[in-house]
Every structure is written in C-alpha cells, then in structure tokens.
C-alpha cells in the first residue's frame, strides 16, 4: 500500500485483557512513531524507533505498554492488562528520514476497553 | 507539563474570513514547527511547516508566522472555505526527533 497501515481499525477489549496493535509503515521509512490520541485531544507521544532501535520510550504511560520493531519495518504496540483509561485512538506515523520533517500518519486503531 | 500550548480550542469563521490559530512553546531546543490538519476518522496530515530561522512561510492560503524571541507561532488561513473545517494541531520537534503536539483547534467554516 501507499500509506501507513494500521490494524485492526477498531478493537474492543475487556478490562484486563492484553491487546496488540500493528503498524505497517511506508516501505523504506526509517523512523516510526506511536501516539495516543484521546477523544478531543492532540496526539500524545508514546515512543519512537529509528529502524529497529527504540530511541525514546519516555511517553509510554506505564510498564503495561510495550512496543517493538524487531526488523526495522512492522511495529507492534502491546498493552497488557488493559484499563478503561487506555481507551483512545492509537496512531502510528513513519518518516523516511532519521531526523524526520514530515511524519505520515495512519488512520489509527480505536481501542475501547469495557 | 504541556510543552506546546495551543489556542483557541475551537473557532468559527465565516466563509472568506481569516482563521488564526496560535501556539506557544517553552523548550528552546525545538527546531522544527509543523502544522497538521485532521479530519474525523483520519490520521493527521502535514499542512505546512517552518524552521525557527524563518519568520514567515506562505503556501497558498496558509501562512505560518514565527516569533522566535516570544516562542510563539501561528497559522493563518486566508479566504477560509467550508472544506477547511477540521481540527488543526501545531507541533514542535524535539531533540530526539519526536513531534510534540498541541491539544488542537476545531475549526468550523460557515458557508
């Protein structure tokens, strides 16, 4: 595909359940970001990869959140023991540069924890 | 601590009017300032961006004004159209390359 692809588009999880959100960046893009966007809010930074290296994970809200990009392309954001406050849209973005100017966003995964 | 403060939260403008959205930042290490546009159900998309060594950048109807000493920047949308109705986010790039976003401004352009 031409753009950043995220799956699933929608996820409903029961409280306490583990979830995995997938991001397929644009082919060849070096940088990859994860953001959390609550309803009516701006994207909040979670974590940042350059290739397979996780350069910054300072935005991950708790140790229940874990992200990986083992081969420098596809990335997975995992949330363990989901809580209601985890309900949000999770956005993935990628950029062709190590020090990105434009970041291309996917449509996001809307996670609802019930 | 909110690193990028954006105002107003919402804005209603008549068709043909000028829309103005303001942002302020504290961290002088920020080195790149983009604006993103987001439609419902979509991810944000880059609209226009500026570096701090430039005071103004214009692309079509969109202009960024940048005041480095005041640590403020703004987006002006000239001749606003109903199709411009969306949520706009300012952002700033940190030293690691990550983008820090403002909370957004919901713009409605009335016909």
List the helices and strands and how they pair.
The complex is a heterodimer of chains A (114) and B (111).
Chain A: E1 5-7, E2 10-13, E3 19-24, E4 31-37, E5 44-50, E6 53-56, E7 65-68, E8 75-79, E9 88-95, E10 104-105, E11 109-113
Parallel strand pairs in A: 2-11
Antiparallel strand pairs in A: 1-3, 3-8, 4-5, 4-9, 5-6, 7-8, 9-10, 9-11
Chain B: E1 4-7, E2 10-14, E3 19-25, E4 33-38, E5 45-50, E6 56-59, E7 62-67, E8 72-77, E9 86-93, E10 99-101, E11 105-110
Parallel strand pairs in B: 2-11
Antiparallel strand pairs in B: 1-3, 3-8, 4-5, 4-9, 6-7, 7-8, 9-10, 9-11
The total of helices of chain B stands at 0
Shape of chain A: globular
Helix and strand composition category of chain B? mainly beta
Rg of chain B, Å, rounded: 13 Å
What is the arithmetic mean of pLDDT of chain A?
94
Question: How would you name the oligomeric state of the polypeptide chains in this document?
Answer: heterodimer
Largest β sheet strand count, sense and barrel closure of chain B: 6 strands, mixed
Low-confidence stretches of chain A: none
Largest interface: A-B, 28 and 22 residues
